[in-house]
Design a protein that fits this description.
The structure is a homodimer of 191-residue chains. The first copy, chain A, is α+β, with helices and mostly antiparallel strands and 191 residues long. Helices cover 16% and strands 43% of the residues of chain A. In chain A, strands 1, 2, 3, 4, 5, 6, 9 and 10 form an 8-stranded antiparallel sheet that branches. In chain A, strands 7-8 form a two-stranded antiparallel ribbon. Chains A and B meet through strand 4, strand 5, helix 2, helix 4 and strand 12 of A and strand 4, strand 5, helix 2, helix 4 and strand 12 of B. Strand 14 of chain A pairs antiparallel with strand 14 (179-188) of chain B.
């Protein structure tokens, strides 16, 4: 594995997404890998860490997750703006070369038969907690985080370091269409 | 109502929170008003607009929502950093003067018997869609957005204008403790 990628303690995994970034959702089943973008993903619990993600019925990634019971939520960087937009705009069902065309490279992580997207700042390997009513009525999926990793150039010792990493490491926060905001300056309240 | 506050079309209400800000959750029941901070809130659907929010069983706001079946999700600004931290750190159960001590002022909105927090950039009035299993098992609440408003100095014509509004209008994105990031620079992908 890339020497910059380091495990994150599960009890601090929520910090990887609590600031509300747009994420990439990836899954694998029957020899098929796919990746999509999702702005509607959110932390749900601390320990064991859980998260929610909204997956439209039209997406191929949802089908792979329903079949395999597992997925990865990863945090793309400003350097991956175009990749994020591309995987969020095209469906594998209509574009079989979607991943290659978007420039997606996949990483292997020992012990997890899942497609991890290279170049992201953080990865959360999730086990689907099946909730058929939520999935059917709301397109809402719940995952338990079973493994977490981050690139130490931007997340280290349990904290994001966007302010000292280069601007290419900023997380993306979707608005609409191809429009995003990067995460900005740190602000701290006093007790 | 403040002349800067303008209704947002319900079909564009999702844009008020798609970028993942930390929000303030407020509710009223039996003459009691409360406000808390929540980093784990997320859009769930476009039309009718829905959202999710995670509310711990220890919070007074959750109790008010369960009793009244309604709540407001509002987007605080960088100018409200200290207020956001304060309402997220103390419970009304232990500090009856919590709102006054945090500097919270409430607005009235005609037709909605709910406490709207003054000075925010956007407000979403929600009707609770009761889902007892989600609420008990996951502390996960689903709301349907029945009214939306924004301050036109930072959100107009269906779009955020963080880049032209002053830095005090930036949304807050919680990390941990009293630490947040403000939203940053706009980035647009090409098709």
């Amino acid at each position: 594995m890339d020497p910059h990628i380091s495990p994150v303690e599960l009890k601090k995994a929520y910090r990887l997404i609590t600031h509300g970034p747009t994420v990439l959702v990836s899954a694998r089943h029957g020899g098929v890998d796919n990746v999509m973008a999702a702005a509607w993903a959110c932390a749900l619990d601390f320990a064991p860490p859980k998260l929610t993600v909204v997956l439209d019925k039209a997406t191929k990634t949802r089908e792979l997750i329903e079949q395999s019971g597992a997925f990865v939520i990863q945090v793309p960087t400003a350097a991956q703006l175009q990749l994020t937009h591309a995987v969020g705009s095209r469906s594998l069902s209509e574009a079989p070369d979607k991943l290659a065309a978007a420039g997606v490279e996949l990483l292997r992580v020992d012990g997890h038969d899942l497609p991890f997207v290279a170049g992201c700042s953080a990865w959360l390997a999730c086990k689907l907690l099946p909730e058929p009513h939520n999935q059917q009525a709301y397109d809402l999926f719940i995952g338990e985080v079973v493994g977490a990793w981050a690139d130490t150039r931007v997340f280290q010792d349990g904290h994001w370091h966007f302010e000292s990493a280069g601007p290419e490491w900023r997380s993306l926060h979707h608005v609409a269409g191809g429009h995003f905001y990067a995460i900005g300056a740190p602000l701290s309240a006093h007790d």
